[in-house]
Amino acid sequence: MSDVSLLSRSAADVAADIAAGRLATDAALNASLQAYAATDAGPSGLNAVLYSDADSARASLQSLSLGNGTSTDARPLAGIPVAIKDNIATLSMPTSCGSKILDGYVSPFEATVIAKLRAAGALMPMKTNMDEFAMGSSTENSAFGATKHPMDHTRVPGGSSGGSAAVVAAGVTRIALGSETGGSVRQPAAFCGIVGVKPTYGRVSRHGLVAFASSLDQVGVFGQTVDDAALGLQVIAGADALDSTTVDVPVSDYRASRDNAAAQPLAGVVVGRPVEYFPDSLDPRMRELLDRSADRLRALGAEVRDVSLPHTALAIPVYYIVAPAEASSNLARFDGVRYGLRVEGDGLRGMYEATRSQGFGPEVTRRILLGTYVLSAGYYDAYYKRAMAVRRLIAADFTKVFASGVHVLLTPTTPTTAFKAGSKTDPYEMYMSDIFTATANLAGVPAMSQPIGRIDGLPVGGQLLASHFDEATMFRVAYALERALGSEAHA
Asked: Is 127 helix (H, G, I), strand (E, B) or coil?
């Protein structure tokens, strides 16, 4: 078997073969590096990878004691390369957040999720491109150039985790980490035709994730399949003493239902279809694919019923008050004094202004200004305080629906397929790309996107949402739907 052909096998299967000694310990790493060289580098490449460090990945291999019959219970990701979004702190590669202001910055510590991946036997040979400080929905806002869609280089891969989505969709890695604030894992997963998971807020540690909006941010996982994503989340989930927002809730076996071949594996499961997520403006072809998915779930024993989340329409205005407000506070630390870019100016204030003016791109600047405005005297009550009150109403909508006996929700992930690069010049039009995803971040519930078909050759994602800390049920439905759709999910 050639190295590159390994990429067509699940991460779990390859890890088991490496741990047992049936494959060379560096087999998956070599496959990933070959695929990276073939798809990402040069002017015709995807520009999905910002930094690569094969030497450190190989050095990590030598310390893992793989290939001697070790069980994957101890090393579930034995020898598996995982791509890392560039806002997650690593020791061997820079953490630039796609920004000039942190160009070349190397963190003195690594994120908890990186330590967990390492303990599980994973290798981290590359950091991926992103919208600057995770502010964007297309990966066009990176200071290091836009990432291209792996199926059509004239289109965007989504954002802000577009680089991670692109490398998984292109077959460079089976698993990648991204981050979510308003849909930055699920939206690019939908655009690129892969699986993307946002866990419950508090399920995964944010220690070492560069903050954008602290009450919304979450580390998420991309996978080529539901099983790849489930395995990745299984490894990084759990409470962390270094992040006080994590919650000590037992982590279920997300992969427990992967081999369920029962005639009706979803018997007793109630699936809700929020009517607000199916507006008249939704592309009828997308509606048809979602109807097909709902029909498959019914055939598997699930009950599908219409439900209502009445405050959904307010999600985007609420999100674009709360997130910029928190960003304006979090990004104040980038001042040219402690780390990153420093541009001299007229005195201390002049240095601050020069550094930030040259270091931050236009979208980051826009959101800092917006956030500072809504937090300023005279506007706090009118904007931020009111937005937080509506945020509670949005969260209450989800609580009420799940309390009514609904186990998961089925919705579109995005209102459109991947759009042309440069086609959305109006910021508001770009922000509306997250209209179906931002609610889950505001409410803190787990959500995921998986491929359910294509329109004009471009992937369409179906979104599943579940109650707080019930990722296991979400994965149960996702496994069943993936199996039921089969090749239709990519056709």
From this structure: strand
CA dist 288 and 295 (Å) reads: 10
- Mean pLDDT in residue range 231-247: 98
pLDDT tens digits along 4-61: 678 899 999 999 999 988 999 999 999 999 999 999 876 779 999 999 999 999 998 8
Residue type, 191: F
**Catalytic (active-site) positions:** 85, 160, 184
Asked if 80 and 121 touch (Cβ cutoff 8 Å), the reply is: yes
Q: How far is CA 335 from CA 157, 191, 361, in A?
A: 31, 35, 15
pLDDT at residue 7, as a whole number:
85
Residue 129 DSSP symbol: -
**CA distances for 18 relative to 34, 56, 120, 335, angstroms:** 18, 19, 13, 46
CA angle 419, 135, 219 (to 5 degrees): 100
Q: Kindly provide the b/e burial profile for residues 212-250, where b requires at least 16 CB atoms within 10 angstroms of the residue's own CB.
A: bbebbbbbbbbbbbbbbbbbbbbbbbbbbeebeebeeee
The CA distance from 2 to 357, in Å, is: 49
| Boundaries of every domain in the chain | 317-381
Q: How many CA atoms lie within 13 A of 248 on its CB side?
A: 4
Tell me if residue 276 falls in helix, strand or coil: helix
What amino acid is encoded at 315 in this protein?
A
CA dihedral 276, 280, 282, 283 (to 10 degrees): 160
Flag whether pLDDT at 2 surpasses 60: no
DSSP character string of 106-118: --SS--HHHHHHH
Q: What sign has the CA pseudo-torsion 278, 283, 286, 287? A: positive
Complete DSSP assignment for 461-487: EEEEEESTT-HHHHHHHHHHHHHHHGG
Whole-Å CA distances, 447 to 137, 277, 470: 17, 14, 10
Q: What's the burial of 338, exposed, middle or buried (CB within 10 Å: 0-12/13-18/19+)?
A: exposed
Tokens of 28: 């998956």
Angle (deg, nearest 10), helices 11-20 and 27-39: 140
